[in-house]
Amino acid sequence: MFERLQAFFQGLAQQSESAALAPDDPRITVAALCFQIMEADGVVRDRERRKLEEILKEKYGLDGAALQKLMVAAQAAESDAVDYYRFTTALKRQLDVDQRLNLVGILWDIVYADGDRSEMEDHAIWRVAELLGISQRESIHLRQEAAYRAGLDATQDD
Q1: Co-chaperone DjlA N-terminal domain: which residues (predicted)?
Q2: Are 9 and 59 a contacting pair, CB within 8 Å?
Q3: Largest CA distance in the chain
Q4: What CA–CA distances, in Å, run from 109 to 23, 61, 115?
Q5: CA 20, CA 17: separation in Å to the nearest integer?
Q6: What is the mean pLDDT of residues 115-134?
Q7: pTM for the whole thing?
Q8: Which of 12, 19, 30, 130 lies 20 to 30 Å from 58, alpha-carbon distance?
């Protein structure tokens, strides 16, 4: 799974070689979608935010000011969005099926970063996965893998 995540972010990084952030930069779209998932339960916890920063830092090679610039741009994009469609439409065009599967896995990792999964987070990811063309079966599998990585019971609430 780690290799799939690494390949996903490397693919996006290759699409966006420069550290400069254009408004249509897929890194902003991915991070903004992560913010939407973090906010689904009404509370953005520090552990969720740190997990997102860790993922972005590791996969895009960003640190310090560049990482914060991406976080600010993503949060602004998320604040301007009225639904998931804006981001999922762009990502469905830019990403192949494996990359979209990896993205849904990342979203589940963000959910489990705080050790808890809410009904609202579940609903948000099911909707995002559907818009990305990911089946419910695949999403359940990705959720179970994320729960396992987080050290939680993968069958909880099934």
Answers
A1: 28-144
A2: yes
A3: 42
A4: 26, 19, 10
A5: 9
A6: 94
A7: 0.82
A8: 130
